[in-house]
Amino acid sequence: MKKIILSAIMLMGLTFAAQAQDISKNALGLRLGDNNGFGGEISYQRGLSDNNRLELDLGWRNNDNVDGFKLTGLYQWVWNIDGGFNWYAGIGGGVGSWSYNNGNNKDNGTFAFAAGDIGIEYGFKEVPILLSLDFRPEIGAVNYYGDNYSSDIALAIRYRF
Predict the structure, then answer these.
(1) From start to end of 83-148, where are the E strands?
(2) By the 8 A CB rule, do 156 and 132 touch?
(3) Which residue among 11, 46, 48, 49 is least crowded, i.e. fewest CB within 10 A of its CB?
């Protein structure tokens, strides 16, 4: 527990010491990863200032037995590494809904969760493309789909505008 508190304090300290950089005002694209069976997500980022932004992701799942969607919102801090390379960390949460139908076995529900993320990104200067790779742990708060913990490593490609 002491390590978590110390890490949070260090992260907040880095936030205040961050250098200003140019992050995109808007970016829209796809975030592709496992996402606890929800697969791909439509991803939107909105720059709030020089070093923070809001990310909204809509994931969906549709197969023979399970259908569902998941909406995730994250507040992110962004720090410049060098040139177009940035790293970022964020915290947030989300909600979703799922339904299971396999013959006589049927079930459905809604859920809520807390989430965090940490990642690295590169914004190209020649074209308005942003590539990122991140890790996102999720902890179920209410009726979480599956068990109460999930993590995801995903690659995202977004168009900056």
Answers:
(1) 85-102, 105-123, 129-142
(2) yes
(3) 49
